[in-house]
Amino acid sequence: MHSNQELKETVSKVKPLMKWAGGKRQILPHLMNNVPDEFSVYYEPFAGGAALLLELFNAGRLRRAVISDINTDLIELYSIVKNRCNDLIEELQNMRFKNTSYDYYRARDLYNSLDSNENPEKAALMIYLNRHAYNGLYRVNSTGKFNVPFGRYRNPSLPTSESIISFSNALKNVRIVNEDFESVVCEATGNDFVYFDPPYDPVSSSSNFDSYTSNGFGHDQQIRLSSVYRRLSERGTKVMESNSNSPLIDTLYRNYTILKIGARRSINSKSEGRGKIDELIIKNYTANHNPLNST
Ligand SMILES: C[S@@+](CC[C@H](N)C(=O)[O-])C[C@H]1O[C@@H](n2cnc3c(N)ncnc32)[C@H](O)[C@@H]1O
């Protein structure tokens, strides 16, 4: 096991590799401010861009962690970054696709034709697509094929080799799994800390982010998540969740500490949905009360 200091020494600031809908960069200070002082294993079962994992790593507060996501290609990508970082760097250096609509759709076809199984070429294409796709979205059609259109960015870039290496170092003591959130946390104990960042309960139809994968995340899933939250609480595991400020979420978590914070969502297809809206941070513990302008 590495000490916090050893983990921290690698590179000063590791940043997310992927732009991800629902990314937590804007509310990170609030989240960090509410992380429990002490915990053993950190769980992030809806990893996406894994923003909080990296922030904990950057702060030297990560010992061991488990991250998961239902998105198989994303998890394959993280496993390759962790275990075959040089192969991925080579693929990115040899990337022949440029920032044109023609190249983008050829890259998208190739990506959709490749097997996910620990394939560095597919992982490199996923990064290319993420940085050239419309709004950095990840969306698949009913047959599981990535179908986001070209983004027309002026100057998109691929990650540097250094940023891949530092991300790889950050993943050294992280177990990376492709499982549903419920099975990931079943082994969490009373000393552990779980952060749930599920697809948010939509507050209106225009802010529905359900299409992360071919499976949606509807009310039944939100209710299932709240049962898992309750079971973990009964076991003494510290749990923090972010979600939208919707009547359903308010009801499901009324027995816990709820902090309301303002956050600007940037991924939204309708411009009227871009305003400042409330997000909730829900905790089952009371430590770290300094909620940065929250109400
Ligand atoms: C809001 S995003 C996470 C954002 C991320 N924490 C970040 O900072 O960028 C939600 C993620 O949950 C994943 N997901 C959806 N349903 C899931 C499930 N049942 N179990 C695990 N992950 C799931 C999606 O693939 C998506 O990546």
Give the helix/strand layout:
Elements: H1 4-9, H2 28-33, E1 41-44, H3 51-58, E2 64-68, H4 72-83, H5 85-93, H6 101-113, H7 120-132, H8 161-170, E3 174-177, H9 181-184, E4 193-196, H10 219-235, E5 238-244, H11 247-252, E6 257-264, E7 276-283
Parallel strand pairs: 1-2, 1-4, 2-3, 4-5
Antiparallel strand pairs: 5-7, 6-7
Helix pairs in contact: 4-5, 4-7, 4-8, 5-7, 5-8, 6-7
Bound molecules: S-adenosylmethionine.
S-adenosylmethionine binds at residues 20, 22-24, 45-46, 48-49, 51, 68-71, 180-181, 197-199, 212-213, 217.
Tell me briefly what this model is.
The chain is of the alpha/beta class. The protein has eleven helices and seven strands.
Structural notes for this entry:
The chain has 295 residues and is α/β, with parallel strands linked by helices. It contains eleven helices and seven strands. It has a seven-stranded mixed beta sheet with strand order 3-2-1-4-5-7-6, with helices on both faces. The structure holds S-adenosylmethionine.
Placed side by side, the strands forming the largest sheet appear as: 3-2-1-4-5-7-6
Bound molecules: S-adenosylmethionine
> In the residues, how many domains can be counted?
2
Task: Report the top-level CATH class of the largest domain.
Answer: Alpha Beta
Percentage of residues in strands: 5-15%
Mass-distribution shape: globular
What is the count of DSSP helices, taking H or I runs of 4+ residues?
11
Instruction: Please bin the fraction of helical residues.
Output: 25-40%
The termini sit apart by 40 Å
Give me the count of strands.
7
Largest sheet: 7 strands, mixed
The overall pLDDT average reads: 87
* CATH topology term of the largest domain: Rossmann fold
Low-confidence stretches: 6-11, 206-215, 267-274, 289-295
